[in-house]
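Consider the tokenized backbone below.
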């Protein structure tokens, strides 16, 4: 069910049977010279479109949080960086609003690496007030399986660029883009370090991305996501039995 398009009457009816909401969380950020600035919003949106077909009667699809936090790429043009504090408070308040509307299962579908540490804080606070959450960071959680399809993943790398191409081939290009390795472990942090880690605002082998790989990645990850959602519901059943 798409929250953007249902009315109050339909919402109240749905509340009687649905207590799970999916909140997509993205970012507007430089993604190499070759991927859309909205990549981290476009990919969660595509997953939502597919999940709606599979679990649309059990999950409320909430409108997305478009802007997030990006320490690493804040210096690049096209990145709109919200501080970790403001961002995590904002996301917490949104989730609290859903909880007060009867949704005690919240799926945070995150498209952007820089949001992860903030979302950790958010989900700890939510758990403390009684909300069950599942956070999906697809590029981290399913990385080993991703590598079987896109061997050289990364920020706007082979995996992410392929996923964008599978949505619309106009939203990314690969010709002459090449490949970048992250030169230093991310645990070294220093002023303007982000530009050192991401020399052209990307990592991985973007040149090898294709729409076909993207479609394979969506199908592979959809199965894993559905399993993760089932686990969240199993946790709910176990808690209710106690
Ligand atoms: Zn991205």
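A designed sequence for it:
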């Amino acid at each position: 069910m798409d929250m953007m398009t249902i009315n109050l009457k339909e919402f109240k009816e749905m509340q009687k049977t649905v207590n799970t909401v999916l909140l997509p969380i993205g970012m507007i950020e430089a993604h190499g010279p070759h991927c859309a600035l909205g990549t981290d919003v476009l990919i969660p949106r595509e997953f939502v479109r597919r999940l709606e077909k599979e679990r649309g009667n059990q999950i409320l699809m909430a409108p997305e949080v478009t802007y997030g936090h990006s320490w690493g790429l804040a210096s690049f043009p096209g990145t709109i960086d919200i501080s970790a504090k403001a961002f995590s408070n904002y996301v917490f308040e949104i989730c609290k609003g859903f909880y007060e509307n009867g949704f005690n299962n919240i799926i945070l579908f995150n498209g952007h690496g820089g949001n992860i540490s903030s979302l950790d804080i958010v989900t700890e606070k939510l758990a403390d007030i009684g909300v069950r959450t599942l956070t999906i960071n697809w590029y981290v959680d399913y990385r080993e399986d991703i590598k079987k399809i896109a061997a050289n993943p990364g920020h706007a790398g082979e995996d992410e660029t392929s996923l964008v191409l599978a949505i619309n081939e106009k939203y990314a290009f690969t010709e002459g883009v090449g490949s970048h390795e992250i030169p230093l472990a991310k645990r070294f942090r220093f002023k303007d370090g982000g530009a050192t880690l991401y020399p052209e605002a990307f990592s991985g082998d973007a040149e090898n991305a294709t729409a076909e790989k993207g479609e394979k990645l969506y199908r592979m990850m959809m199965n894993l996501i559905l399993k993760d959602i089932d686990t969240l519901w199993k946790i709910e059943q176990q808690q209710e039995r106690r």
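The longest strand covers residues 20-25.
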